[in-house]
Amino acid sequence: MQYHISVVAKLIKLFDAIAANPQGVRFIDACRAAEALGIVHKGGAGSHRAFARPGEPMLLNCRSRDGHAPPYQASQLIAMIEKYGEKQ
Fold first, then answer.
1. Which residues make beta-bridge pairs with 49?
2. Which residues lie closer than 8 Å to 15 by C-beta, 6 or more apart?
3. Is 63 strand, coil or helix?
4. What are the structural domains, with CATH classification, of the chain?
5. pLDDT at site 26
6. Can you tell me the mean pLDDT for 51-79?
7. Which stretches of 23-80 are assigned E, i.e. beta strand?
8. Which of 2, 21, 39, 44 is in Cβ range 3.0-4.6 Å of 53 for a Cys bridge?
9. Beta bridge partners of residue 41, listed in sequence order
10. Nearest-angstrom CA–CA distance, 62 and 85
11. From CA 1, how far away is CA 20, in angstroms rounded?
12. Residue 43: what are its φ and ψ, rounded to 5°?
């Protein structure tokens, strides 16, 4: 049971960090957060990834610019966190 609590705490910390600083979201953290929200990797490799969530009409695209997600994509991710974060 301790392991599960630790994982949830790390996800909450990640979601909070993304919301606090959309300009500083690392690409790998954006991808981890998307997957933690149940958003499935649908395509792309390397510096471009496309994600979709069943029942969600909006796709989430992540692109790496020098290892970080562009702020507008981080904002889209924040909207998904606000919509689905509590349900996980």
1. 62
2. 33, 81, 85
3. strand
4. 2-87 (3.30.920.30)
5. 96
6. 92
7. 40-43, 48-52, 60-63
8. 39
9. 51
10. 18
11. 29
12. 175, 170
- pLDDT tens digits for 51-62? 999 998 988 999
In the prediction, which pLDDT does 60 show?
Answer: 92
CA distance 52 to 71: 19
Tens digits of residue pLDDT in 23-50: 999 999 999 999 999 999 998 888 899 9
| Burial degree of 15 (CB within 10 A; 0-12, 13-18, 19+) | buried
Query: Is there a contact between 80 and 20 (Cβ–Cβ < 8 Å)?
Result: no
pTM of the model: 0.85
Q: Quick check: 88 pLDDT over 80? A: no
